[in-house]
């Protein structure tokens, strides 16, 4: 037997099993209008710090796109995942890793109306954990130039979050976020596409981590980001190179730079591989404190805490100064014209010493994560 | 929400439906939907029943084609995919080899006895279109034993969900399909049977949805001259597999998980490469009893 067909065998069997009548959840087993697209995914995520296996996530997901009445499309996605593991020990010197277990439900629906040279999409989303609830609405408008070479995109959204931690540090704490985006995509040559996206978000409300003993963050966060993309198709290799750079800044004094490159190489017979590399570097938030503790109170209290107990503090490593790298490989196979299966494996590593453009925050153990994702997309 | 468990016997196995429900009568109604569906699948596809579609297809072997309904045609198409993707190892016509293997008498068949049956094995020769199927030679037979139980578990879970259940699982002799997590969001913990010690387990796997299935050399077997002969037979040689004591696969559907465990057993030394490429979590118990966890 040839190698390629073997490689996809497991995924092909899952895909074939899904076509059996009545085995998938009932909402999906019912026949939908023509060219309905069903996607099914499975994500396994695990992160760790040296000597501690931390969080494992198993997340099956389902997505459905149903076109109706020619110019309309409706999309829905649902994901449910269970999370089990020891809770983050952001400062590795604090070794009391407690167990956490949580379950997240999330879903979104988006309706799009297509016109001759434009489209309007309205969406709503929700996400719920036992201690966190989020609802959001969004709108996205797209215009395309007469020669089809330029596309302008404008979006706006609003999210309402309610936080109810089990330790009741706060009750019904709120956080509201408004975001705006504008972007332009330009076809430069038949083989080159460039894109510029600007996003801006303004958040007000409760941003602290209720499960950390010392975590008091500002009650507002304004964020801005610029994303530059360039996609190039190499005819000689029939491959696509996707590159991007993102600059991020916020009112907490975090500045970040992210570089991404992905190579998509078709191999024939419906196969393609896509290796990806990403590097991110950022400085620390103004109120982030290093794991050096108050000589009197000891961990986790920062030095001088007694003199200013209501000051802004956070030990969250995501707000520290660090560099991070991601390496990933995705393999996809078009089993037939209507069915694509894909699998990807990604490794993420975050280290203080990997920061470029300044020193990383001291005293934090490296964080590693592994993502495994399998997916199936089928058009009917 | 309370947990309710309903045990029953079907498909020659001990089975259970577990469901979380606000009240007993609702739990009973949901379990009833699941158990009825298991019975329906069992009756329709049993090779032991005179009136089943499988019996009709087998009786017409070497004669005329048999008309199939959509469900049967879907299962036959799925069997075709399994045959193709396993390089011919998963073959629903291989059940004929049981005529030579008598596990109760514990006798190893002679090479001649197996050689006489092997020409009757061969899915590639089955004539099939969307509506009809014909076994080309008298004496050939098919059965859905390789994935029928798992298919029933998926269907039963679907029937329960259609009736309104959201939290629970269907366990048909160790082939398990979950509807969703426990009401508090915790996953179900599925223990994996120890292949050599009844009542003992080798691992436990948490699942919040999807399925866990296990194939092993301990379900039906005999031992002779220090060698174990189990019921999973290689369709090319007619001989039992030997490489693994058991293989467990976690997949979105039981029917896929169950098929992959059987293919893993049949592939013997090639199973790790095959299952790694499938990208799904799996667990193996090697012939010396070593447990291997992969992406779990």
How does the SSE layout of this entry go?
The complex is a heterodimer of chains A (380) and B (296).
Chain A: H1 3-7, H2 9-18, H3 26-29, E1 37-49, E2 52-68, E3 72-86, E4 99-114, E5 118-129, E6 132-144, E7 150-163, E8 173-189, E9 192-205, E10 220-234, E11 239-250, E12 255-268, E13 271-282, E14 322-336, E15 339-351, E16 367-379
Antiparallel strand pairs in A: 1-2, 1-16, 2-3, 3-4, 4-5, 5-6, 6-7, 7-8, 8-9, 9-10, 10-11, 11-12, 12-13, 13-14, 14-15, 15-16
Chain B: E1 2-10, E2 13-21, H1 24-45, H2 53-59, E3 66-67, H3 70-85, H4 111-117, E4 127-128, E5 132-134, H5 148-163, E6 168-172, E7 175-180, E8 188-193, E9 201-207, E10 210-216, E11 221-224, E12 227-230, E13 244-251, H6 254-267, H7 271-278, E14 282-286, E15 291-294
Antiparallel strand pairs in B: 1-2, 2-6, 3-5, 4-5, 6-7, 7-10, 8-9, 10-13, 11-12, 13-14, 14-15
Plain-language structure description:
The complex is a heterodimer of chains A (380) and B (296). With 380 residues, chain A is mainly β. Chain A has one domain: Porin (Beta Barrel), CATH 2.40.160.40. Chain A has three helices and 16 strands. Chain A has helices at 3-7, 9-18, 26-29, and strands spanning 37-49, 52-68, 72-86, 99-114, 118-129, 132-144, 150-163, 173-189, 192-205, 220-234, 239-250, 255-268, 271-282, 322-336, 339-351, 367-379. In chain A, β10 (220-234) and β11 form a beta hairpin. The longest helix of chain A is centred in the first third of the chain and has 10 residues, at 9-18. With 296 residues, chain B is α+β, with helices and mostly antiparallel strands. Chain B folds into two domains: 2-42 and 147-294, T-fold, CATH 3.10.520.10; 61-134, T-fold. In chain B, 30% of the residues lie in helices and 27% in strands. Chain B has seven helices and 15 strands. In chain B, the strands form four sheets. In chain B, strands 1-2-6-7-10-13-14-15 form an eight-stranded antiparallel sheet. Chain B has a three-stranded antiparallel sheet with strand order 3-5-4, with no helix packed on it. A two-stranded antiparallel ribbon of chain B has the order 8-9. In chain B, α1 (24-45) packs antiparallel against α5. Chain A binds chain B through residues 1, 5-14, 16-26, 29, 40, 42, 44, 58, 60, 80-82, 84, 101-103, 130, 343, 372, 374, and chain B through 70-71, 74-75, 77-78, 81-82, 84-87, 151, 154-155, 158-159, 161-162, 180-181, 184-187, 206-210, 251-253, 255-256, 259-260, 263, 274-275, 277-281, 295.
